[in-house]
Specification:
27 strands; elongated; alpha/beta; about 525 residues; about 25% helix
């Protein structure tokens, strides 16, 4: 795959490298990736994420794409899911992601739009809500509002119910971008007094919360622009990491001064930040209350042009790198067979001497067994032809798993007879039960499975089918209709196993019970004390 490699010089190098693999990670087809200041700092050697290895590295930390390989840790993110999130190694055709750091892309967003949002959303929500304690009705100042993150912060504050949102820029040409994002007041700090402008817009009080993305000399003005008891959160330091503060102002106004960064947070901590978006932020994106601001889209081969645009502060919104041209084939999708049968409910043994097998299982502590002699399934067919197969059957539960022992007692054709004739004895099938049997049956045939034998036990609500799915000599898959009298009997067998004290290990029951005869059902309930 293609990847932009950092740590090998002053510019990224576009190389072909191996597609990554990692147990438990989600691998996505990267369709678009967001370019951030931190990517430039990492290129210069001034920034490294907590999980990033030293030396050369695949750049990029903000992605949008399609899940190609899912993770058992995130069943909600199956193959084919459109996702956006944060990771390391995002500037590549494929990226490995911690599933906790991904969220589904809301409907209606393109991959380029989605790639412009994750870092802005988590940064601003964490700073505004988790760190500063924002509540609806607070007033907010966004310093550096025309940055891609700042534009998200403006919209987020409005979406969460801010009474007044003020945003700053250092370019008169970008004021309109601030008001378009929802700012009630745009301040050009190159020619306006920030504290005075904020005081005028807040009845002289100052704002409740200030989010600063700039740092440097301008930071010294923020205490005077922030209200008594207010909070100032330092997020970015575009103008430098040093400043001079009037500590008297901070003390007299009883302000909280907070700093935040994600570079040193653990994945578990980042997962909490991403999870916090679920209740309010993602619904606001889906509703269009928070909308993406994409400045420009570049191909990976143009990455240095993209970086230079960000360095010159020319962008209004997020600069995107597109990797979509690497993924023009069919989109990934879950296998139609994956988990199609549900959960294994029964393990079926075919044996030559049922009585001997029963004694072995009883000696292992499994029981009680319910033994049916001379059971003849209704409408039984083998390879599509009628068969008069008769069998002895015994069933018992061990926890949630039912064990079944089958011994064919005549020479009529069946897959049980085939199993024994081939010299096998033991596990012959694993069974799945379904209350929507016909739907499962149709899906199995549509997926290419072939029926080897099928029939009914207890009438039309007791259908079963054995599929030609041999993956171990003679062992196949059975699907069974779990409704009617069969469900009644199976539930009683499970209860009996849970309360078994070792007495009466074998209960011989009338096969007529499975026909649904009310008298037979009452008789069995009475025998079990029900």
């Amino acid at each position: 795959m293609r990847a932009l490699i950092g740590g090998a010089g002053p510019h990224w190098q576009l190389r072909d490298i191996d597609t990554p693999h990692q147990l438990g990670a989600v691998r996505i087809q990267v369709m678009a990736a967001g370019l951030n200041r931190a990517d430039l700092y990492a290129l210069e050697g001034n920034y490294s994420a907590n999980s990033q290895q030293p030396g050369e590295f695949t750049a990029g930390m903000e992605v949008a794409g399609i899940v190609e390989t899912s993770s058992p840790l995130a069943p909600h993110l199956c193959a084919g899911t459109r996702v956006m999130g944060i990771t390391i190694g995002g500037f590549a055709d494929y990226a490995l992601c911690d599933p906790r750091l991904l969220v589904p892309i809301p409907e209606g967003l393109s991959f380029e739009e989605a790639a412009s949002l994750p870092i802005g959303l988590i940064t601003e929500h964490d700073a505004l809500v988790s760190q500063a304690g924002f509540v609806a009705g607070n007033s907010v100042l966004i310093v550096g509002g025309t940055s891609s993150i700042g534009l998200v912060g403006i919209q987020l504050a409005k979406a969460l119910g801010a009474s007044t949102v003020i945003a700053t820029t250092t370019s008169a040409d970008k004021r309109d971008a601030l008001t378009a994002a929802g700012a009630d007041l745009a301040v050009d700090t190159t020619g306006e007094d920030l504290a005075a402008a904020v005081a005028s817009a807040t009845n002289g009080n100052g704002v409740d919360i200030t989010l600063d993305h700039v740092g440097g000399e301008l930071f010294a003005q923020l205490p005077a622009a922030t209200a008594i008891g207010g909070a100032i959160v330092s997020i970015g330091r575009l103008a430098g990491a040093t400043t001079t503060l009037d500590l008297d102002t901070i003390a007299f106004r009883r302000q909280r001064l907070l700093g935040t960064t994600f570079s040193i947070r653990t994945r578990a901590e980042l997962a909490e930040v991403v999870a916090a978006l679920t209740s309010q932020v993602l619904p606001a994106v889906a509703a269009g209350t928070i909308s993406p601001r994409v400045d420009a889209v570049f191909a990976p081969e143009q990455a240095e042009h993209a970086a230079e645009r960000l360095r010159r502060n020319s962008a209004v919104g997020k600069i995107i790198l597109s990797f979509a041209d690497a993924h023009t084939g069919p989109a990934p999708a879950p296998s139609p067979r994956a988990n199609m049968f549900g959960t294994i409910r029964q393990i079926g043994y075919v044996v030559r001497d049922l009585e001997s097998s029963l004694r072995g299982f009883i000696d292992s502590g499994i029981g009680p067994w319910f033994h049916l002699r001379g059971l003849r399934p209704g409408n039984f067919t083998y390879r599509g032809e009628p068969s008069g197969m008769v069998m002895d059957v015994a069933v018992a539960n061990s926890g949630d798993i039912q064990l079944e022992l089958i011994q064919p007692v005549n020479a009529e054709p069946s897959m049980y007879k085939d199993f024994l004739d081939a010299g096998h004895e033991g596990v012959q099938h694993i069974a799945y039960w379904a209350e929507n049997y016909q739907e499962l049956y149709d899906r199995a045939l549509a997926a290419g499975f072939t029926v080897g034998q099928e029939g009914e036990i207890g009438g039309p609500t007791g259908r079963f089918a054995y599929l030609e799915t041999e993956h171990h000599p003679g062992t196949v898959v059975e699907i069974s209709d779990l409704s009617g009298s069969k469900k009644f009997v199976f539930d009683l067998i499970k209860v009996a196993a849970a309360n078994w004290d070792g007495t009466h290990p074998i209960q011989v029951i009338d096969p007529a019970l499975l026909s649904g005869d009310p008298a037979a059902m009452d008789e069995m309930k009475a025998a079990l004390g029900g």
